[in-house]
């Protein structure tokens, strides 16, 4: 069911400008970008779910609860195609759904202690086993599962051999792990496929917390962000491996930086950072001729101290730390920063086949009550 857009105040979100575009005829004219709500979709489901992924072949969307035990698949008009809840006992047990997304049209879940399970119409139809013990410390908001040739690629799981009983050795081992692992579809053999460049700040023998890798493919290029820093890394796919090309800094005013800790005193990291909310780069998108780096700027220690404790997390944090985008051209020149998303939206996870960013509305951030879940379709507009 589609919402009548006359009921929605037209939203055109203005943006500050950082540089000029690549067109010589416009060399002296700044490029203004905005995100405009062009359409919205209502899903007939009374409950809170957030948009996680999109399947362009079937033109369907995947939404799930915060702890993704339960999910919906809906079509472009919001019609529910499938509603499923993972079982913790009986058949096709999911021990813990650590990450959820689409893989070749099926719903794939990273099942703690097992590997990836694939579901179609609520039934398990496949499995990709991780052939060694692994552990999950942080949930990844992006599944990151894809295939090329005879290889399947996914975020490198944390081996069970990494023990937190010795924290300095734990973090040293964590940062040296490959970011992406490949698995041979015939033999099941695994191999590290992408590593951080030696120049990465994360490898400077300090504690930087837990990176949460998010990456996006653009033909033979892969763009990787670690979540914890305002930069991303560009790689070129060469066969079954990815070779590092460059690091792109994202210039974000008022970015709240985390304070690294000495490797021999890792507990200092928590002490130095628990009173603030550091910035986070949450996603990278390809939208037409542009790359979009999605982020939250963070909340300073001074502002956090003024907040009610209940407002420092969850909805309270979303109000104070909304979602923004930085815009880059395909040569990685930054054109704009602080392009805001609708203030009532979750962090963006989807670009559909029409090149529209799609976000789910957070009911608790809205002054109006909706009869179901709302998705906004946003167009990146160059003014």
TrEMBL record:
It comes from the Bacteria. PROSITE patterns: PROKAR_LIPOPROTEIN. This is DUF4221 domain-containing protein. It comes from Algoriphagus antarcticus.
């Amino acid at each position: 069911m589609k919402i009548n857009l006359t009921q929605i105040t037209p939203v055109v979100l203005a943006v500050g400008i950082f540089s000029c575009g690549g067109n010589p005829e416009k060399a002296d004219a700044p490029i203004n970008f905005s995100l405009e709500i062009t359409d919205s979709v209502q899903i007939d489901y009374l409950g809170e779910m957030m948009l996680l992924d999109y399947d362009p072949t079937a033109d369907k969307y995947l939404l799930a609860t915060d702890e993704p035990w339960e999910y919906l698949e809906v079509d472009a008009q919001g019609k529910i195609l499938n509603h499923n809840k993972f079982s913790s006992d009986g058949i096709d047990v999911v021990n813990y759904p650590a990450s959820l997304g689409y893989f070749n049209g099926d719903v794939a879940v990273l099942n703690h202690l097992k590997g990836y399970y694939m579901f179609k119409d609520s039934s398990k139809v496949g499995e990709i086993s991780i052939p060694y013990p692994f552990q999950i410390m942080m949930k990844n908001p992006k599944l990151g599962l894809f295939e090329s040739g005879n290889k399947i690629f996914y975020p490198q799981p944390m081996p069970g051999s990494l023990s937190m009983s010795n924290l300095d050795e734990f973090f040293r081992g964590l940062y040296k792990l490959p970011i992406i692992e490949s698995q041979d579809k015939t033999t099941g053999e695994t191999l590290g496929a992408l590593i951080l460049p030696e120049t990465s700040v994360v490898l400077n023998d300090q504690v930087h917390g837990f990176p949460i890798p998010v990456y996006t493919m653009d033909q033979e290029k892969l763009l990787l962000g670690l979540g914890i820093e305002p930069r991303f890394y560009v790689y070129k796919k060469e066969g079954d491996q990815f070779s590092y090309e460059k690091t792109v800094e994202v210039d974000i005013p008022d970015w709240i930086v985390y304070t690294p800790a000495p490797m021999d005193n890792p507990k200092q990291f928590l002490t130095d950072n628990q009173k603030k909310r550091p910035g986070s780069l949450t996603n990278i998108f390809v939208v037409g001729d542009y790359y979009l780096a999605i982020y939250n700027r963070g909340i300073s220690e001074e502002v956090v101290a003024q907040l009610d404790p209940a407002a420092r997390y969850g909805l309270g944090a979303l109000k104070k730390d909304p979602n923004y985008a930085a815009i880059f051209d395909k040569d990685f020149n930054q054109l704009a920063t602080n392009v805001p998303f609708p203030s009532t939206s979750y962090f963006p996870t989807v670009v559909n086949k029409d090149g529209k960013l799609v976000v789910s509305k957070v009911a608790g951030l809205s002054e109006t009550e909706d009869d179901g879940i709302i998705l906004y379709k946003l167009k990146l507009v160059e003014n």
